[in-house]
Design goal:
By secondary structure, the protein is mainly beta. The strands form two sheets. Strands 2, 4, 6, 8, 9, 11, 12 and 13 form an eight-stranded antiparallel beta sheet that branches. A five-stranded antiparallel beta sheet has the order 1-3-5-10-7, with no helix packed on it. A hairpin with a 5-residue loop joins strand 11 and strand 12. The longest helix is centred in the first third of the chain and has 26 residues.
Length: 241
Amino acid sequence: MSSRRMTTIAGSLVAASFSTVMIFSVTASADEGPASSKGGKAVDEAPAGVKLTTTLPEKISVDNSSQKTALTAGVKNDGSKDSGKIRLLVVGFDGLTVKNVQGCSPMEEKDLPEGSNSGFVCPIDNLAAGKSKSYAVDATFDLKKTGKICLPVQTGDGKKTFWQQGPVPFGTTNPSPNAPATPLLLGTDNKPVAPGGDTPGELPKTGAERELLPLGAAGASLMAAGMAGLWWSQRRPRRTV
């Protein structure tokens, strides 16, 4: 075989390998859809001229081998006045565990809401009128379970909750355990994958109504202050193993 022909074949193999790597990279990455406030509602009344909401992607992608996923959590002020000091919480439930939120601090275990497995606090000194702020979230999703996430926006001291998105689920009604990654949709209860790669026969729910998150460490102090405690109340004591 001539050296020229060998060079041509080698070049084709390199190009093919590069193409394969690029395809895998796209498949394994987080494929976020448009940002959505689905599952969100106003709670305590915000200051006049301040309108705070949050957003989550319509679609994420979970690596079937590592269970890793990534998403963007956003908070915005659609009002006509600055927000002042506020904070965004990013909380995971069931099969969705929040591992890190860029620029934020992990919540102490005693401050986690009942039923949650992880949470981060993102302090914001001020969110100007018409502005938004985004946070990169690293998480894992156990596809054998359902998974939810919650984004409350509170005063800087956590005494009032102006807005709360969730706990809202991510999930799929058509699991693909043999694929490199599984796409999950916001607002869809996950149909868990059974150990053998099969799926349970029960059909999932795709509900619109979601309960507000009962969170608890500061519940007693909020009730003493005569506040509604929509976010922090009714937390049962945790059992220590």
